[in-house]
Amino acid sequence: MTRMLLMGPPGSGKGTQATRIADKLGIVPISTGDIFRHNVKSMTPLGVEAKRYIDNGDFVPDEVTNRMVADRIAQADAEHGFLLDGYPRTKGQVEALDAMLAEAGQSLSAVVELEVPDEEIVERLLKRAEIEGRADDTQEVIEHRLDLYHRETESVIQEYVERGIVARVDGTGQIDDVTERLLQAVYSVRSATGSLPVIQPGAES
Q1: Cys-Cys with 85: which of 7, 31, 53, 163 at CB 3.0–4.6 Å?
Q2: Is-catalytic flag, 20?
């Protein structure tokens, strides 16, 4: 059973790869962006609370985000494993996720980070902004988002590096090639930690 995190900067292809990897491993992909949108659209108590911060242009506090994630991974479809995309992003969220999993007698199998050079990220996002008409996605804004990602996630990644469950994967090139590299990384980490037997690519679908 795989419970993993997929991390990477905006524009790294993380969302696309999360869906593909989760499908290959037979687990559910969980995006914090999707969780926020679902709760806000459904006007759940957590969604109403989160919307107050979003409407004011503020970050949603860890406490609210943690409760949303806890509610999501407790649902039946995540019982047999999940891939978290976009969480945790702070050390406080790492501690909260640890507590959620420990309460259920679970732990993470692997943390995989997609690595793409900042220059390529900027190029990708500027191209996407042009195609989709996103006038607010300027180079300055994109570079600011990248800076935030690097500052926010450095300590998070290091936390998991010390646990020996991190693999870093080249996120450049063809989508299928990146997927294959990600799968190999997950299998390698699981084998090294002894959490699950080695499964060769192509054995899961």
Answers
A1: 31
A2: no
